[in-house]
Design brief:
- By secondary structure, the protein is an alpha+beta fold.
- The chain folds into 4 domains: 1-148, Bulb-type lectin domain (Agglutinin, subunit A); 150-285, Agglutinin, subunit A (Orthogonal Prism), CATH 2.90.10.10; 298-431, Hepatocyte Growth Factor; 572-799, Orthogonal Bundle (Transferase(Phosphotransferase), domain 1).
- The strands form 12 sheets. The protein has a 6-stranded mixed β-sheet, sandwiched between helices. Strands 30-35-32-33-31 form a 5-stranded antiparallel β-sheet, with helices on one face.
- α4 (434-442) crosses α5 (444-474) and α9 packs antiparallel against α13 (670-686).
- It is globular.
- It binds 2-acetamido-2-deoxy-beta-D-glucopyranose (NAG) (8 copies).
- Residues 1-18 form the signal peptide.
- It catalyses: L-threonyl-[protein] + ATP = O-phospho-L-threonyl-[protein] + ADP + H(+); L-seryl-[protein] + ATP = O-phospho-L-seryl-[protein] + ADP + H(+).
- Keywords: ATP-binding, Disulfide bond, EGF-like domain, Glycoprotein, Kinase, Membrane, Nucleotide-binding, Receptor, Serine/threonine-protein kinase, Signal, Transferase, Transmembrane, Transmembrane helix.
- The chain crosses the membrane at residues 435-460.
Amino acid sequence: MAPFFFLLLLGQILLCTAVDTINSTTPFSGTQRIVSRGSKFTLGFYSPPLGSSISGSYYIAIWYSNIPQVTTVWTATTDVLVSDPTTASLRIASDGNLVLLDQAKNRQLWSTNVSTISNSTMATIKDTGSLELTDASNPSIVYWRSIDHPTNTWLPGGKLGLNKTTRVSQRLVPWKNNADPSPGLFSLELDPNGTTQYFIQWDESISYWTSGPWNGNIFSLVPEMTSNFRYNFQFINNDTESYFIYSMKDDSVISRFIIDVTGQIKQLTWVDSSKQWIMFWAQPRTQCEVYALCGAYGSCSLTALPYCNCIKGFSQKFQSDWDLQDYSGGCKRNVPLQCQANSNSAKTQPDKFYTMGGVRLPDNAQSALATSSEECKVACLKNCSCNAYTYNSSGCFVWPGELVNLQDEYSGNGVGTLFLRLAASELQDSKKSKAAIIGAVVGGVAAVLIILAIVLFFLFQKCRRDRTLRISKTAGGTLIAFRYSDLQHVTKNFSEKLGGGAFGSVFKGKLPDSTAIAVKKLDGLHQGEKQFRAEVSTIGTTQHVNLVRLLGFCSEGSKRLLVYEFMPKGSLEVQLFPGEKTALSWATRYQIALGTARGLNYLHEKCRDCIIHCDVKPDNILLDESFVPKVSDFGLAKLLGRDFSRVLTTMRGTRGYLAPEWISGVPITAKADVFSYGMMLFELISGRRNADHGEEGRPAFFPTLAASKLHEGDLHTLLDPRLNGDANPDELTRACKVACWCIQDDESTRPTTGQIVQILEGFLDVNMPPVPRSLRVLGESPDVINFFSDLSSSQTSQTQNSTTTSQTHSATSGGS
Ligand SMILES: *[C@@H]1O[C@H](CO)[C@@H](O)[C@H](O)[C@H]1NC(C)=O
Ligand SMILES: *[C@@H]1O[C@H](CO)[C@@H](O)[C@H](O)[C@H]1NC(C)=O
Ligand SMILES: *[C@@H]1O[C@H](CO)[C@@H](O)[C@H](O)[C@H]1NC(C)=O
Ligand SMILES: *[C@@H]1O[C@H](CO)[C@@H](O)[C@H](O)[C@H]1NC(C)=O
Ligand SMILES: *[C@@H]1O[C@H](CO)[C@@H](O)[C@H](O)[C@H]1NC(C)=O
Ligand SMILES: *[C@@H]1O[C@H](CO)[C@@H](O)[C@H](O)[C@H]1NC(C)=O
Ligand SMILES: *[C@@H]1O[C@H](CO)[C@@H](O)[C@H](O)[C@H]1NC(C)=O
Ligand SMILES: *[C@@H]1O[C@H](CO)[C@@H](O)[C@H](O)[C@H]1NC(C)=O
């Protein structure tokens, strides 16, 4: 009975949601919703998921109807929040405006606030994501559109510009934090002064990014617009208005442009196959370029996550906001300065200075008269409002106010050494007073006993306590520094070997909380501890769903180990090549190809320093429980130094994945990874090693075969026979074409990983690739195949003799 009743109720709700308008007789409240005619967008009451401080608050919002994780595109922000949507209603008021009423208090919380010529109006949710208030009898009279009042999202078809008569502009403003849609500090808008450039500003005052002026085709500082292929866009600039507008060339693609709570603008696309939003463009390029992101006395760092931290002697003012990625509250001083503490200052010591080298100096410095660093220091100490000073070739500068826009480990414009003023007690390491000495003497014996007890206690508890402490730190995104003895313990003295690669052997381990890990012992690293830590921290902050996550490291004496998350399905090599009874399905293979390309794309284009993997092959693509691919071993080539030839000689297992430029001596770019990726893609298609396609004793090189079959239009013969022809033909064609483009001899004709992703996603069409020249050679003279298949042995025997290797290469190309 009860389930039946529930179904009836559900049916009624669903019937109600089929409506797309609110008119004077159909107000709505509670869980009611209206849905656009093509079911693309929904309007209703919405409560942000993460609300800690303001949980249980509801907002009128518009979101995508068909995206599982509720993604809002517009919210009506009000000063008074709705805590119970059943007591609030959205209705047409007697003046024709759409209003949000608090019925309990009979109070108006929000209104479209326009003057209408008739009070007979209605509000309709459109498939463009816009809520429109129109005349009920003549819907072509539009009074108000939500798309003209964007919040944090700029949708296709929306204008972002300036009405030159009213001087009213559309501004894109982020949420205050991840749980609060009220306006944050940042904004994107067209220059109100009338030039044709967009600015991202902090607090409507300081611009930290500009698009550059419109040059007739693109915004001058956004050159990537020229390689646009997914959007139509237009910039209108005349006497009455100027605005930018964009739309999707393919209507079925869901794309949105947002300004993030952390002050970056981003363009994202929904990828249904992986059920996630993929960000493919962001400005400013790095997070720390966002002005004052970390608030007063906070410092931004690109090598640690979260980006913001308080500087020494300070701590978060509002921890709950920081947890929601709103750092604007900044930090507060832990111990007041001597001059601030109005106690009898005889007891307190004068303030001291803490040296912060290599930082981006804060804003709003004032110059002070001083001819030496010491005088500069004295000048700062004299004035209680002085928080820091610096002395450089331009002289002495002091900071009388809050310190904002600091960045750690900085090397750009405005780098310097900051001397931060702190209470003396913050900088004391050993405070020896008479009392303490007497205390030590008197308590000597007792202390020894206590210490002994503590030592015993620690010996007893050591492992457990350490590890639980450290593991809890992982969640925060920082790397764990393991002790060698601990790793020895969790890997049962390195007994379970998972594999060996170019950089060392990998062992399985299990942390005390039973998290499985993979521990890599690095061979032949002759790097200093400091440099190692720096590199490791870069690898640690390089995080993406398609990259294996680094959890920690160990650096003790000459021992260098890396600790990664464990991948239950092992490597692609194990899963793909014959031997494994059940062949990977085509869908899984395609998923692996796409995910790998995304991971590589992240390495090449999305992180701070471009990381070239240098060793892309099935052995380095690991698979998680659900066969999501994760690229492993990235960043290690760099760890071994820029000496790539050394990397080459150590790549013993690498057969047939190396791009020709490795041996021709030209500089290695990300396109070398693209080549290897292409080779791997062929193997995903055929299910066999590229060099293992021999028939009747005649060796055949699969890519050669594939290139010619592609031209003949006969692709199914290329497919792994274990699949019995069960593959999506469109995907198969795309994969073959991409693979063939990837292995072109000339780097510049190979696609970028970004383009590969787009091609595989189906957003970019791709022409028929030419047969690579070196392949044509290979096809004709079978003995040259050794060039690929026996590369590893020639590499190892020739060690680093580059003359010999390049001769090999010229001999190869000489045959053409
Ligand atoms: C309001 O909409 C409902 C259903 O969409 C309709 O039945 C009703 O006639 C409309 N009322 C007015 C005043 O237009
Ligand atoms: C519209 O205005 C008229 C008078 O101007 C008023 O009588 C009527 O009730 C109003 N209609 C609504 C739906 O509020
Ligand atoms: C409504 O608009 C008028 C001007 O058109 C403005 O003065 C008023 O403050 C607005 N009211 C609200 C609640 O936004
Ligand atoms: C500018 O705003 C005024 C007043 O709202 C409006 O009448 C006019 O149509 C707007 N101009 C443009 C080009 O949208
Ligand atoms: C606009 O012009 C004013 C006055 O010339 C100037 O102070 C302001 O900085 C300009 N704003 C921008 C964003 O360029
Ligand atoms: C400005 O451009 C808009 C959009 O193209 C157009 O509707 C409007 O008439 C133009 N105004 C003038 C004065 O050219
Ligand atoms: C301290 O510095 C501030 C800002 O530069 C200045 O306004 C104030 O007069 C100074 N006070 C003294 C006592 O010099
Ligand atoms: C010295 O520091 C001040 C304050 O940040 C800065 O404005 C100035 O450019 C620096 N001068 C040099 C030469 O770095």
